[in-house]
Amino acid sequence: MTDERRQRVERVTGSRRARLTPAPGTDPSPDVATKDTAASAPSKEQGPNDARLRQDVPPHY
Q1: pLDDT tens digits, one per residue of 2-13
Q2: Cβ distance 37 to 31 under 8 Å?
Q3: 3-state secondary structure (DSSP) of residue 50
Q4: CB atoms within 10 A of CB 20
Q5: Do the Cβ atoms of 20 and 7 come closer than 8 Å?
Q6: Are 12 and 21 in contact (CB under 8 A)?
Q7: How many angstroms separate the CA atoms of 46 and 2, rounded?
Q8: How far is 24 from 5, CA to CA, in rounded Å?
Q9: Which of 17, 19, 37, 18 is CA-nearest to residue 28?
Q10: pTM of the model
Q11: What is residue 39's predicted lDDT score, i.e. its pLDDT?
Q12: CA dist 8 → 4, 25, 29, 59 (Å)
């Protein structure tokens, strides 16, 4: 008995990984960045500790 409302695992020829079919009720197309998301990018303003944080190197380097 197959249930068409569920995702299925599909084998991909020549690949080590399998792929899932899109879940029912979802949009399988990739997200596309809009101009509104560019506004949420980090600002160019620097805080008082930014220069020090960029110079610090973790001890395992």
Answers
A1: 667 788 999 999
A2: no
A3: helix
A4: 9
A5: yes
A6: no
A7: 57
A8: 6
A9: 19
A10: 0.38
A11: 55
A12: 9, 14, 18, 46
